[in-house]
């Protein structure tokens, strides 16, 4: 009977040890799984942050390029307006000069006509 009791005790201890081992194994696996999950989440978060940073940088670059293009277009438009202003001013100056020449020629002609008339009077 003692032998049987000792064997039962041994068997119970063995079973308890096996169960403890199984629990420890399960706990270790759960811990490992949790760690893996955490690492996955961290990696995903890092990836997302990097992607968002890239997108922000790209958007910023695009905005900068658009701003630069707008400034260049504005500068071009301003230059074109200045050129047009100069062209109109030159045209006006030319027209004024032509008018002045014409007036001078008329005055000269008038003087010549008056002189001729005076000369004709003298001759008559």
From TrEMBL:
Region annotated Disordered, chain positions: 1-124
Protein name: Uncharacterized protein
